[in-house]
Amino acid sequence: MKRVTLTVCVLLAAAVPAVAQTAPQTPPAGRATGAPASPPPASYFSKSAPPDLVEFEMMTWPEVYRAIHDRGKTTALVYTGGTEQRGPQNVNGGHTLMAKATVKAIALKLGNAIALPVLPYSPNGASAALPGTIGLTNELLGAMLEQIAEQAIITGFKNVILMGDHGGGQPRVYAEVAKKLEDKYAAKAQAEGHAQDIHVYFCDEVYAKAQGDFEKYLQSQNLPTSSHAGIQDTSEMMYLQGSTNDYTRVDLLPVAFGGRGQQPADPNAPRPVSSGVSGDGRQSTVALGKMAFDNKVTYAVAQIQRLLAGSKSPDR
Q1: What is the rounded distance in angstroms from the CA atom of residue 184 to the CA atom of residue 24?
Q2: pLDDT digits (tens, 9 = 90+) for 8-18
Q3: How far apart are CA 151 and CA 157, in angstroms?
Q4: Most buried one in 101, 195, 250, 271, CB count within 10 A?
Q5: Does pLDDT of 22 surpass 50?
Q6: pTM for this one?
Q7: pLDDT given for residue 26 in this prediction
Q8: Strand partners, 162
C-alpha cells in the first residue's frame, strides 16, 4: 500500500509542472493585455498635482494617459546615466544625476515629451582599486534599450528618443537599437497599408556634439581638457547641486587631477593612489557647468525637433 501511495504521489508531482505550463497565465497588474485604452474618470485626477509634469516616474497613470492622449505628449525620452567613480571630488552617481536634470529640461523645452526614468547603468567595468563603478555589457544595454522602447510604444507613445550621458555604448549600441526598431515599425506600417506612425531615434548630439564643442571652448580659454571627471563633468555637477555639497565635494577640487603624483624616492614607501580623474578638474566653476548643461539641452532639443519634423515628411 505504501508503494502504491508513493507511486501516485510521484505521478502527481510530475503532472503539476505540465499543468502549470499549459494553463492560461493571468498577466500581473500593470502588464499590457491588448485591451483598448479607456479615458480615466475625472475623479482620478488630483487638483493639487504639481504643474508641468514631464517625469514619468513622478506621474500617476491617469496623468500619463492625459498627457499622451489629451495634451499631445507623444514622445518618450529614454536617457541613460551611469554609475562609476568620478574622482575623489564627485559622487559615483554623477552621470545619472546629470541625466535626470538634463532629460527633464529637454522634455520641458520640447513641450511634447515625457522623460522616462533614467537608467542608472551603462557599459563599464567595476574596479576594486577604485570602487565606484557598476557597469553593464553592450549587449545587455542594447536589450534593455530595446525593451524599454517597446514598452513605451505599448504605453501609447508614438516617438521614442534614445540618449545617453555616458560614452559607453555610444554611438553603436544606441544607433543599432534605434535602426532595428525604426525598420520594424516601417515594415509593420507598410504591411498594414498606412504611413509609419511610430518612430525610434537616437539623439547623439546631446553627448558627442555638446561635449566636443565644450572641449573646444576650454581650449580657446587655455583651460585643460579631460576625458573623465575633469572640468566639464565636475563643473556641471557643481552647477546642478546649487548651494549644497551633495554632488561635488568642492573642498577636494585641489586634488581633482589625473595621475598618481610624484613617485616617492624610497622604493619601499607606499605608492601614491590614483585619483580616478583623467585630466584636470581643478579649475571647475559653476559658470562653466551652466554652459555645459545648457549646451546639452539646446543641442538635444534642436536635433529631436529635426528628427520629428523628418518623420512627418511626405517623402517618408
Answers
A1: 29
A2: 344 444 444 44
A3: 9
A4: 101
A5: no
A6: 0.86
A7: 45
A8: 78, 202
